[in-house]
Design brief:
With 174 residues, the chain is α+β, with helices and mostly antiparallel strands. Helices cover 33% and strands 18% of the residues. Strands 1-2-4-3 form a four-stranded antiparallel sheet. Helix 2 crosses helix 4. It is globular and about 55 Å long. The chain starts with a helix and ends in a 23-residue tail after the last strand.
């Protein structure tokens, strides 16, 4: 896992290849093992392929005030929407959102380790009514962003992006 974390990089441009649902399911099961106070599982994922990308394109266009569908959903053939699905609990919402974010990050690591390119996209449009509706969000849910997933372009094979940070600059003691 250390090598997978050190080797991870974002792939903002991917090929049309994508993992099948059958390939995704064990990765999602593994990603679900993140820290989760009270075992609430305050998250869910939305698989977006084919016609789903058309639906998302229309929603993003509408949310952005455009009369045309957005081209963003066509940047990969598979998009996974990450949803914080907050539960009524003593566990604060921020902690539940952290669990959902943890699932997304763990899934991106697992996909990267499996040889897939991944890029996590966010932005103001995640909070817009048309986008919420397209994802079927309930009142207790927030869209945290999308994992765009596809094959790694040949020019990026072997290259692993930026170097790790100097950890001594990011840790202190009390």
């Amino acid at each position: 896992m250390l090598q997978a974390a050190l080797a991870r990089r974002s792939h903002s441009s991917v090929t049309e290849d994508a993992p099948s649902r059958e390939e995704l399911l064990p990765l999602i099961a593994a990603a679900s093992r993140v820290a989760d106070h009270s075992n609430l599982r305050p998250w869910r994922l939305v698989e977006i392929r084919d016609e789903g990308r058309d639906k998302l394109a229309k929603a993003l266009g509408k949310a952005d005030g455009s009369k045309k569908p957005s081209t963003k959903p066509y940047r990969s053939t598979l998009i996974i929407a990450v949803v914080a699905s907050r539960q009524k609990s003593k566990v604060p919402e921020w902690e539940q959102d952290a669990t959902a974010s943890g699932v997304a990050h763990m899934l991106s690591l697992l996909l990267d380790e499996a040889g897939w390119g991944v890029f996590w996209r966010t932005g103001d449009l995640t909070r817009k009514k048309a986008v919420r509706k397209a994802h079927g969000l309930k009142r207790n849910e927030e869209l945290l962003g999308w994992l765009y997933i596809g094959g790694i372009k040949e020019k990026y094979l072997g290259g692993r992006g930026k170097r790790p940070v100097d950890p001594t600059k990011f840790i202190s003691s009390i």
